[in-house]
Amino acid sequence: MCRFIFKRIGYALLTTFIIITLTFFLIHSIPGDPISPQNLGKYLPEDAVKAFKEKHGLDKPLIVQYGMFLKRLILEGDFGDSLIYIGRSVNKTIKECAPTSAIIGGQAIIIELILGLLMGIVAGFNRGKWIDQVAMVVVILGICVPSFVVASLLQYIFGVKFNILPIYGWGGFKETILPSIALSFFGIAMFGKYMRNSVLSVVGEDYILTAKAKGVSKTNLIIKHVLRNAIIPIVTLFGPHLMFIFAGSFVIERIFAVPGLGKYYVDSVANSDYTMVLGLTILYSVLFIFSLILVDILYGIVDPRIRITKGDR
Amino acid sequence: MQKILEVKDLRVSFHTYAGECQAVRGVSFHVNEGETLAVVGESGCGKTVTSKAIMKLLPEPPSEIKEGSVILFKDKNIVNMKEKELRLLRGSEISMIFQDPMTSLNPTSKTGKQIAEGLMIHRGMNKKQAFEEAVKMLETVKIPNARKRANQYPHEFSGGMRQRAMIAIALACNPSILIADEPTTALDVTIQAQIMDLIKELQKKLGTAVILVTHDLGVVADVADRIQVMYAGKIVERGTTDEIFYNPKHPYTWALLRSVPKLSTKNKSELYSLKGTPPDLVSPPVGCPFAPRCEYCMEICEEAMPYATEITSTHEVSCWLQHPMAPKVEVPNELMVGGEINGAS
Fold it and tell me: A206 CB near a chain B CB, below 8 Å?
């Protein structure tokens, strides 16, 4: 198992390196740079532009810039300074804003898992009954209605109509509630749908009949035999979704004025803020890759059939 | 011998979009303590439905056990039992082995734990006691390295071993009746023989009555005490194993016996196969359901259901050929090899 994890981490590092390289050259191949005329350049005198380019090494050949970036990243763990926001380093931005995004994302995941799985289980066991049909309507709405519509509706209902929760802003737990709910809407629908299907397919399995023939009580049958097996496919969904929750939150962050990472990610691409784009891309890809490793480990725990045995590599 | 299970006029229907499919149409039989009763018939004749109905394992809806059906187990009617009573019965008094061992074991639970589960429910054992007992059960069904095996998952077992584990689960609480629903169909021939021997041996040891559901008369021959032949949701002939093999009366039983390949056949004649398919049970025929496929079909066969004729106290057949006015029909030649009807060997 240890060997398996080390091997996976090795591959993960390699993948990250490839992503860094690709992102570096792609972002530099976009026409213009942070101080070209269509961005900041038109307000600056020529000397200032030259000085800026020299300071950030933008006047050197691309391959040299790549070497410099890698050296700084590997030796110092430093993504560099933002090219747009003066005096703001990428590392600091991540340190300050990532926890904010993580709180919203984390809460959303918890809501998704609890409500989504519960809905899927209830719908699965009551196939064709009214509760199943209600759940399916919720699923379709959750998947079809974009998150910003849900966000606005939530703001209207809880902020304006009942006036119980703040419409936007950041500070205490209260402010995190609406963004988390808005963000979780899609996930609830997705987990609900997949869990329902998974429950339905497990209920029809022969081993459920075996358990019934053993005299297992209904509660035990559902928990030990049905859910234990129905959860396996859900684990696969969980990893990539973890990433989606982080990256997909910038719309929600905008609507609720949450100071998360999403704002910087979108802005930096628009402004050709090379260091910021690279820094955030690396952060997201590392998160994604490690969520996949997490899924593999989780999979081994929930499904004994694919557990790595001692002899295997 | 005492009757342990008595089924009277069992009728089971499935409600489908096409209409009500009458899978079992008035089946009556009994099982004595410690004996083996084989239920034989082709696919779709209602044998599996009958066996599942005994444990009330059929999902309702779409299935329905019709009013008037009686399944008496130790003088209690299973049909009227509540879920709670049924749970006490299942696994402890009546157990079941299913057809496909590859899918009948829970893939995410250790084999030992699956055997222990029944013991914990019915015998009130704690985890440790139940596990120890499960190891003993695995030894009983002749799985080597039982302790190690009990800690393994079903996917680490071969097909034959899984069926042994299934038998261990079924027999763990020492039930009075074991229902084996085609226990060897999914296994290869050598393993089939081993599993049948195991069932036979354990039955003798534990005194369990076995209801063996199968479509393979070859499997039945040296295991069963009595055989009943089912066709289109009805029992068409029943008798002791000897009576069915040496003195079969129903043309359907003849057809079944003729389609068993025999070692003694020397000429290169083609193996007999019964033409046609069983009737649609959504609208079952008025007369004998076998009439359209029967070589000896008479006018009456299509108009009225034949009643059961008693040949001996144990041998009963539902066929118009038994009527005193019916023409005398000889048993087909192939079944008379060297003066005896063969199929048993």
Answer: yes
| Secondary-structure class of domain B3-224 per CATH | alpha beta
- Is residue A34 reached through a cis peptide bond, with omega within 30 degrees of 0 on the bond before it? no
pTM, two decimal places:
0.80
Q: Please provide residue A81's backbone torsions phi and psi, each rounded to the nearest 5 degrees.
A: -95, 155
* Residue ranges per structural domain of chain B: 3-224, 253-341
CA distance B335 to A212: 42
pLDDT digit string, tens, across residues A70-91: 888 888 888 888 877 777 888 8
Shortest distance between the Cα of B90 and any Cα of chain A, in A, equals 5
Asked whether the beta carbons of residue B117 and residue A216 sit closer than 8 angstroms, the reply is: yes
- Pairwise CA distance, residues A126 & B193, whole Å: 43
d(C-alpha B79, C-alpha B86), whole Å: 10
Say what angle helices A90-111 and A232-247 make with each other, to 10 degrees. 140
Whole-angstrom distance, CA of residue A227 vs CA of residue A120: 11
Q: Which of A207, A218, A302 sits opposite B106 (nearest CB)?
A: A207
pLDDT interval class at B344 (50, 70, 90): very low
**Strand B340-341 with B336-337, pairing:** antiparallel
As a residue count, chain B comes to 345
Q: How far is CA B258 from the centre of its chain?
A: 20
Helix, strand or coil, per DSSP, at residue B53: helix
Element (H, E) at B231: strand B226-231
- B108/A216 CB distance under 8 A: no
Q: Verify whether the Cβ–Cβ distance B95 to A209 is below 8 Å.
A: no
3-state secondary structure of A162: coil
Convert the pLDDT of each residue in B98-133 to its tens digit: 888 888 898 888 888 898 888 888 888 888 888 888
Domain parsing of chain A, residue ranges = 99-269
A215/B87 touch (CB, cutoff 8 Å), yes or no? yes
Q: Do A211 and B122 touch (CB under 8 A)?
A: no
**CATH architecture, domain A99-269:** Orthogonal Bundle (1.10)
Nearest by CB to B90, which of A205, A213, A304? A213
State the pLDDT at residue A111.
92
Q: What ipTM was estimated for this complex?
A: 0.82
**CB proximity B174 to A under 8 Å:** no
- Distance from C-alpha of A294 to C-alpha of B165, rounded to nearest angstrom: 34
A–B interface: beta-carbon pairs under 8 A: 76
Give the pLDDT confidence of B219-272 residue by residue, as tens digits: 788 888 899 999 888 888 999 988 888 888 888 888 888 887 777 666 677 777
Q: Which two tokens stand for residue B268?
A: 């290169």
